[in-house]
């Protein structure tokens, strides 16, 4: 009896210890699972909120930067856009001709390569500002009033008339070279005048920087065209 009682007592103790160990292990596992589940869940909203905040800040900064412009910037873009397009068209006309001095065709190619990317920039600015690609009649009147200009815009900015463009298109050989160089010289001088106005009155940094580039590069091209004309 004593032996049997001792055995039962020992078995009871083992059972208690086993149940205690299981309970402790189960509790530990549960806590581990809970912690593992809660930590990532808590981190995800925080990371997402941070990303959204960063995107909003970037978008806001970009919008603010594009908004920092004035009427002079808009006028510069609206006037320089058709001006550049005509310069590219003039260059294309010359490049389509045969028997043209390579020095003149190289210049025409140089003008195209410089002004094509600027056309894209000018277009992008006007779109971002919500402005029309061309100056309105109200804008034209305002500009003429400020500058004391007459209604013949071609004389102001060096733009060629439709008749001039037709003549250039029909010209060949040396005549075409001379006409191109003389017309592009006047065209460049008009662009430089517009660029200088932007440098003085503009506010948008990228537009002012483009204007400074136009003054520098197109004055150099005027000098080159003057040299080429002397050789004709």
Short description:
The chain has 8 helices and no strands. The protein is mainly alpha-helical.
CATH C-level of the domain at 71-230: Mainly Alpha
Rg is 38 Å
What would you give as the CATH superfamily of the domain at 71-230? Ferritin, core subunit, four-helix bundle
Terminal Cα span: 135 Å
Q: What is the tally of beta strands?
A: 0
Fraction of residues in H or I helices:
over 70%
Overall form: elongated
Low-confidence stretches: 1-45, 148-155
Q: Hey, roughly how much beta strand do the residues contain? A: under 5%
CATH A-level architecture of the domain at 71-230? Up-down Bundle
What letter string, H or E per element, gives the SSE order?
A: HHHHHHHH
Describe, in plain words, how this protein is organized in 3D.
- This is DUF305 domain-containing protein.
- InterPro entries: DUF305_CopM-like (IPR005183), Ferritin-like (IPR012347).
- The protein has 232 residues and is mostly helical.
- The protein has a domain at 71-230: Up-down Bundle (Ferritin).
- Helix content is 86%, strand content 0%.
- It has helices at residues 2-67, 71-95, 102-129, 137-147, 153-157, 162-170, 173-201, 205-230.
- α7 (173-201) runs antiparallel to α8 (205-230).
- The longest helix is centred in the first third of the chain and has 66 residues, at 2-67.
- The radius of gyration is 38 Å and the shape is elongated.
- The N and C termini lie far apart (135 Å).
């Amino acid at each position: 009896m004593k032996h049997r009682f001792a055995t039962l007592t020992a078995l009871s103790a083992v059972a208690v210890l086993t149940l205690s160990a299981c309970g402790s292990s189960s509790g530990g596992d549960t806590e581990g699972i809970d912690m593992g589940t809660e930590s990532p869940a808590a981190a995800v909203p925080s990371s997402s909120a941070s990303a959204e905040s960063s995107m909003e800040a970037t978008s806001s900064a970009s919008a603010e930067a594009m908004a920092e412009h004035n009427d002079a910037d808009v006028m510069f873009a609206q006037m320089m856009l058709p001006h550049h397009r005509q310069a590219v068209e003039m260059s294309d006309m010359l490049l389509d001709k045969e028997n043209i001095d390579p020095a003149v065709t190289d210049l025409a190619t140089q003008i195209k390569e410089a002004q094509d990317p600027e056309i894209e920039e000018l277009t992008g600015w006007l779109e971002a500002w919500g402005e029309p690609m061309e100056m309105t009649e109200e804008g034209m009147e305002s500009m003429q009033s400020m500058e004391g200009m007459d209604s013949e815009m071609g004389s102001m900015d060096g733009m060629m008339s439709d008749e001039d463009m037709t003549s250039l298109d029909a010209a060949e050989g040396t005549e075409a070279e001379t006409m191109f160089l003389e017309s592009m010289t006047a065209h460049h001088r008009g662009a430089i005048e517009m660029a200088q106005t932007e440098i003085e009155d503009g506010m948008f940094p990228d537009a002012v920087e483009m204007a400074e580039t136009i003054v520098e590069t197109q004055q150099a091209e005027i000098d080159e065209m003057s040299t080429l004309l002397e050789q004709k």
